[in-house]
Design brief:
By secondary structure, the chain is α/β, with parallel strands linked by helices. It has 2 domains: about 120 residues, Enolase-like, N-terminal domain (Enolase-like, domain 1), CATH 3.30.390; about 200 residues, Enolase-like C-terminal domain (TIM Barrel, Alpha-Beta Barrel), CATH 3.20.20. It is built from 13 helices and 14 strands. It has an 8-stranded parallel sheet with strand order 5-6-7-8-9-10-11-12. Strands 1-2-3 form a 3-stranded antiparallel sheet. The longest helix has 18 residues. About 50% of the residues are buried.
Amino acid sequence: MAATSESGPYSDTPWNLSRVVLTRCNMDIPKSLSLSAVAERWPIAGRFNISRGAKTEAVVVVATLSDGIHRGRGECVPYGRYGETVDGVIAAIEALRPMIAHGLDRKGLQTAVPPGAARNAVDCAFWDLEAKRTGKRVHELVGLAAPKPLTTALTISLDEPAGMARAAEKVASRPLLKVKLGAEGDPARIAAVRAAAPQAVLIVDANEGWTESNLAENVAACAKAGVKLIEQPLPATGDRPLANLTRSVALCADESAHDRASLPGLIGKYDAVNIKLDKAGGLTEALAMAAEAGRLGLTVMAGCMVATSLSMAPAVLLAQKAAYVDLDGPLLLAGDRRDGLRYDESCVFPPQVELWG
């Protein structure tokens, strides 16, 4: 599963030049640039259950940068697992107003704000604004080929085995399913999903819900079901036992991975890394992180939080060379934004300029 530094999915020249990601397109930003942030609530279709609990709505924060003529937007999801709150993220964004008004640009943002949701929203707003001002798409500004449609995973929410089987049966024709586990009785859950969707490629996300005592049993059950990848089986603070685990299924870091600084600590424990813009702090760092992951021999998954198409749009660029794509956030909502991403079953198309970039 792991890629080598020479042939990994992010080994092409534009992705390895991290300096390009950090410095390209840092055109002078006028001092009149204004910044605003607002929270929005988007109902989820039903309930979204993982090992840490359930929710019925996605709460996002949208940052908007304006030069008085053009407007750029970025969306983030404050995540309590990382100590974030909606009010805290909005406050962090609003604290940037005077710095941005006095010339803080996207490059400076990378050191002015730590990785996380707040920086993600502002970083993506900078990219969107720059695209609007120049009349170029973000992939052109970065130096990438035009993005193509991708196959995304579709998530099966955590439930009792029978409930998960019913959910899987409804989407059994989808090529890639992501199965939420992380509770007592997971072997029965994954067996039930496999029986209901015998042809689908399965990946599993335990969301830190397993323990050292049930790790081997759960991994063996996943191997028996033909699972290709397991995300974050153990808590990030207790994942050392993974280094001694005999691998029958590749392991992917999620909560254990944030930005580039976290990557060296994954070696020996994980085969892959789930890169999310909300963790990395924006598209700028996510692209650089993907390049470094490839250099270290880690397979890349492009992931997301439950959010609207405005959150997914920048991640579509990151996902172009990812081995696994998990950008189904809008599909879990009761409704999406106007001009949202086009989904055709499991195929997600690049964003139109009206949405982002």
